[in-house]
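Here is my example:
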Amino acid sequence: MKDIKENEKKTNFFGNMKASFSGRKFRNGAYVTMVSVVVIVIILVANMIVSKMNIQFDFSKQGMYTLTKDTKEMAKGLTDDITIYYLVQPNNETDLFKNIVKQYDIASDKITVVNKNPVLYPQFASQYVDASVTENSFLVVNNTNKRSKYVDYSDMLIQEMNYQTYQQETTGIDVEGQLTAAIQYVTSTDLPKMYVVSGHGETATGVSFSTAMGKMNVNVDTLATVSEGSIPDDCDMLYINAPQSDFSEAETKMIKDYLIAGGKAIITLNYNATSLTNFLSILKYYGIEVVNGVVIEGDSSKHLSNYVNYLIPNIETHDITSGASDNSTPVFMPDASGLKILDTKRSTLTIEPLLATSDAAFSKVNTSSTSAAKEDGDIAGPFNLGLEATDTYNNITSSIVVYSSAYTFGEETATYSNSDLLTGTVGFLAGDKDLLSIPTKSLADATITVSQQQAIMLGALVVFVIPALILFIGIMVTLKRRKK
């Protein structure tokens, strides 16, 4: 009897075990286990492949470790053999610098990156530069034409004073900007020369402008036209930045003579400046008329929130504006005048729009008025805010580019697509559309700029739509539970 019970227990045990292996729970558990094993194997294999192929992904803000499209295109177009020497001791590299410069080696088979120990080879850099070099710096050498450019460590870090701690803080990096500029320098045979006109209360060029010109390898000098008999022969372009007082007849003739002979000019305007008869005659010679007053934008999507005179213009299709069009940030034109194309322009002139307002824009003639609404005497739009005019006569071509805001290339707008607009303008007039000025990459928290229309929509979303959606979901859940 006892043996029979024992046999029954064994039978039940094995039967239960068999049932457990053939039951639904076991099948589900086995399936989950199998899927988990497969997923783990896939992850391990993918990890091995990524490690073997040195594949990396840049998830940093602003693509901190990734070259911009412009730099990659420039690198692919190189015909000279370039070596970038990273002057650093082993194990003393700055990770950020090391990761960025490695991308140049990947971007072009014409670029080679070589680490050079400045302690082991103290005299190496002296064959290329006269100044002493610092560690974690770069030396860019064109092996074809033997030109070279030194990029110092301090030039690649943007530092600003923190007035709470009274200490310098690093707020941005400029590794790509400086290295790309150095490559352009050593591969360029003819660097552009710009003269900035002075003596008429012009708006001073800021740090951002100077930095951009430096990266584009544009030589910049000032020119007091009142004391000159002619524009220098080496002038590739003039920059007249929002004069407040008029030019003399002699200065006006000198500038016109320079342009007629094939010159180039960038001109910005100050809406507050009056009685500029001679200066404005230069623009009229190129078929451009300045509308009296300051432009107010009636379309809420075309101005900064609460600032109807801080315009967000439509960007027209042109070689000059291609970089600004591709950028995710807008172009801003604060306190701009309206520009019109004269109906009586010469047949030799070609005038192309660059920036324009909406149809709802108007020019407020009484600039001291406290009302943002259109009043009697105000001039209806739309207006151009940027124009490019080219005159071809007797096989000689001259060009001017006019922007109607004194802040077009100022510090106030440098962090927006105005910087791309500057690069495009200078490159177009220099006859080299490939000139680049890669912007600094900020380490600060990203900010969002919204128009008035966007601000209203976001406010409505937060105040009305989201609460209403939550309330609706709550009601539906309650009703469903009651039915049960």
